[in-house]
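@channel sequence for tomorrow's demo:
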Amino acid sequence: MQRVRGLRSVALGLTLGALACVTYFAVVAQPPAAAASAAAAPPASALVGDLDLPYMGLGVVWIRADGLVLVEIGDRQTMAFRAEASGMALYEQDGSVSFRKQPPATGSIVHQFIPAPVAQPALCSAAFHIVGYLDIDYDAESGQLDLGVDGAKQAFSARFDFSHAEVVAEGGGANEPPVRQAGQGATCQCECDGPSGSSCSASKNCDPGYTCSCTCRCFETFSNCTCSSCSRIRATGVVIVEEVSERVDR
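structure tokens (generated this afternoon):
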């Protein structure tokens, strides 16, 4: 699958709220791609339902500080899974954001995933959020899923290995219970207090067994708060395959 191209440098103000939240996953060894077992790799239907892959079209990617990755695929469906992000970081280089263990020669950090507990990660603003042209493909033999988004101000690309992940069946126990705070039944929420009164908040209620993510971005003159669609978690223990993104033209 072609890698998406970066467009412009990331605005550092977009991530100030998200940097306060940390992950709780333990560090795991990443198995080499060549060792992926075809028998262990889940079918595409277990991850994306009846969506035809490869998919190219509008979409949204949310990445939470606890490693939750939630993908909104057009206006048809969503998928969510838990990635082992501990010890990694999201770095931006030349407008392109990707997972890395070590920083690139040039660029800046978007979010550092720290192996420390988060009591209620659903109440944290998303560590990363991008809207744009989504490119997603899955190799059922290796269990590797390629995900990319070409957004208005930046691009994102990542590869995930599902060959050793635990697939969560419909109604399985790995989904999150609703988070309740201050008498409200919000499954996820965030808020920001920006300067000059530019404050906002966002919350989302999901059915039991479903999860979501919110992002609150505060700027000097305005703020923006929004939440994702609700989605059930389809897999846990997903490995992030670190790779160097190649900038190519479509």
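heads up for whoever presents: Helices lie at 44-48.
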